[in-house]
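Bug report (template v2)

What were you trying to do?
Predict the complex of my protein with adenosine-5'-triphosphate.

What happened?
Run completed; filing so the output is reviewed.

Input:
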Amino acid sequence: MEAVVEATDLERRYGDTVALAGASLTVGRGEVFGLIGPNGAGKTTLVRALTGTTEPDGGSARVLGEAPADVDRDRLGVLPQDFSPPDRLTARELISYYAGLYDDARDPETVLADVGLADADETWYENLSGGQQRRACVGSILVNDPDVLFLDEPTTGIDPAGRRTIWSLVEELAAGGTTVVLTTHDMAEAEHLADRVGLLADGRIVAQGSPDELVAVHGGASRLTIETTTDVDAFDDLEFPVERAESRRRSTNTDAVVIRDVTPAEIGPVVDYLEARDLEYTGLNWTEPDLEDVYLELADDAERERTARVTQRANAEAANAGETR
Ligand SMILES: Nc1ncnc2c1ncn2[C@@H]1O[C@H](COP(=O)(O)OP(=O)(O)OP(=O)(O)O)[C@@H](O)[C@H]1O
């Protein structure tokens, strides 16, 4: 794989805050890499280190074979989370303005159409809706037809149809060889777009792989949710006809019982079993694990480790303070 974006053991601290604690990743040409992780995990800092807008304290970053600050700007597209263009430009003027910054830019009319703003082209940026503004921002960073795109939460605030428009655009660009690194809190977005996903927690990539690989390794078991108006206690001692039921639990926010590790073929026998016992149910929902389950599992683990580290450090400091007293 030709590495277009590479981070090796990147570290970045802000005072006592460790934003990156040895983050590494490699992204190949035409690949879409999705960065997911909890708030404050270090995603934006990692994107900033890869685009040369923050200097790491340790480790190294290469983009298109060069240090990020040295990369030819014509070859990069960067959509920051807080991109805020001038308010008093229309969508067309905005995109034309960015197009004017490059010797060889795409036709602004095509870009407007690509991001679904052809009908709002004469509207001032400040009067566009939040989602339209984000579309205009995405359009602005595509005008130079970049080889590498960094998108920090590209579809936040965009409606479902707009989100699909942006997704199609990203897919087309990647098919044409553009390398894309995107951060997102939207697991459906990561699952849909990313060839590989990296989960960043506490400044480190704690798992990476294709969405399918991650789900297979970390996603856990399928779930059969039985929604019921019957007292859930009635489900406590049941021996459901399932081979490998891992565990059974009551859903906390609904009147529902969840059985884990049920195969699709076992759903029918479970239904017969409930009906034979006159246990009424109002809904049955079988779900396979997905990226959200992976996220919750790994982010939880990382949070527990972080809490343990903080407690350990606090205890050590307290012990030291005791010794020096
Ligand atoms: N310029 C800065 N000055 C001080 N602290 C910073 C700065 N930038 C980031 N941080 C801190 O570094 C940590 C990582 O922040 P970062 O914005 O990279 O996380 P993130 O994963 O992008 O979060 P989110 O999902 O909320 O956007 C946080 O604790 C944040 O407060």
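What did the reviewer find?
The CA atoms of residues 119 and 217 lie 45 Å apart. Residues 14, 17, 19, 37, 39-45 surround adenosine-5'-triphosphate (CB under 6 Å).
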